[in-house]
């Protein structure tokens, strides 16, 4: 029994010692606070890498689709493919609503007939007469004018045009006027109305060469209003110093309206 009691006491002592011995060791601090920031940092880096890879894949697919679209698109100018009309219009708002004008405009001229009455002889009406033009109500840009002739100041290829209108009517005499007494009406039953455009070439010592000719023989009624217009145009190479002019038959019948009888030239290129 003594042994048993001593063993029991030893067991109790050992238990107390063990319990007391456990307090000798310092408690181990938990490792959870140490690994938590590292875990969060790892997750953040992985998330950023995932986003970056997704963006890279999206950009790659977008570029591939754009290449396919451009390769399969119909052949068009590069400017039409790469730019949009709306973007072009918004690049410079100051220029909207303005017409483009060339830096150096081409030579040109337009001259209407002088509205002052000109005493063209009715005798020898078939003879061609040079028309005088109105500088005041016309214009000459890089071209000159002198005594019915349009002067070329720049060599180049020009478009020449001319239009002449003829009209005739016999005014009814007043009852109390004797001004029409003894006046014999002009015979216009077989009238030739011809328009000629001539070119004086400086290389040929200002020799005149006919460029154009048009007209008709009219059978008009002398008791009513009559009108006829002739119009023509063509391109021709002109040298500096050349001249152009218009001749007509029966010039005394010319219509003096500026909209009906005129002459001009436009330079198309060098």
Which tags fit this structure?
Jelly Rolls; 270 residues; alpha+beta; five-stranded antiparallel β-sheet
Instruction: Label the structural class.
Output: alpha+beta
| Count of separate structural domains | 2
Largest sheet: 6 strands, antiparallel
CATH architectural category of the largest domain: Sandwich
Ends apart, CA distance between termini: 142 Å
- Please state the CA-atom Rg, rounded to the nearest Å: 52 Å
Characterization of this structure:
With 270 residues, the chain is of the alpha+beta class. It has two domains: 40-100; 108-173 and 187-269, Jelly Rolls. The chain is 27% helix and 30% strand. It contains four helices and eleven strands; from the N terminus they run ααααβββββββββββ. The strands form two sheets. Strands 2, 4, 5, 7, 8 and 10 form a six-stranded antiparallel beta sheet that branches. It has a five-stranded antiparallel beta sheet with strand order 3-1-11-6-9, with no helix packed on it. The model is unreliable at 76-83 and 93-103 (pLDDT under 50).
């Amino acid at each position: 029994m003594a042994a048993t009691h001593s063993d029991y006491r030893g067991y109790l002592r050992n238990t107390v010692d063990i319990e007391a011995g456990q307090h000798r060791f310092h408690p181990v601090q938990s490792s959870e606070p140490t690994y938590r920031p590292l875990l969060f940092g790892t997750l953040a880096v992985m998330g950023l890498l995932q986003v970056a890879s997704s963006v890279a894949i999206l950009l790659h697919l977008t570029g591939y689709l754009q290449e396919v679209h451009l390769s399969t698109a119909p052949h068009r100018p590069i400017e039409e493919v790469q730019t949009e009309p709306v973007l072009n219009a918004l690049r410079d708002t100051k220029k909207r609503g303005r017409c483009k004008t060339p830096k150096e405009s081409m030579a040109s001229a337009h001259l209407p007939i002088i509205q002052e009455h000109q005493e063209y002889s009715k005798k020898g009406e078939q003879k061609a007469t040079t028309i005088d033009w109105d500088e005041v109500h016309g214009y000459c840009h890089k071209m000159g004018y002198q005594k019915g002739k349009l002067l070329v100041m720049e060599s180049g290829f020009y478009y020449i045009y001319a239009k002449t209108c003829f009209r005739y009517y016999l005014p009814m005499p007043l009852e109390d006027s004797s001004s029409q007494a003894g006046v014999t009406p002009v015979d216009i039953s077989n009238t030739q109305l011809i328009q000629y455009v001539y070119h004086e070439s400086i290389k040929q010592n200002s020799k005149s060469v006919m460029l154009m000719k048009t007209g008709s023989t009219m059978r008009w009624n002398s008791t009513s209003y009559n009108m006829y217009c002739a119009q023509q145009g063509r391109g021709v190479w002109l040298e500096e110093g050349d001249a152009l002019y218009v001749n007509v038959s029966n010039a005394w019948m010319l219509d003096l309206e500026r909209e009906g009888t005129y002459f001009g030239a436009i330079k198309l290129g060098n």
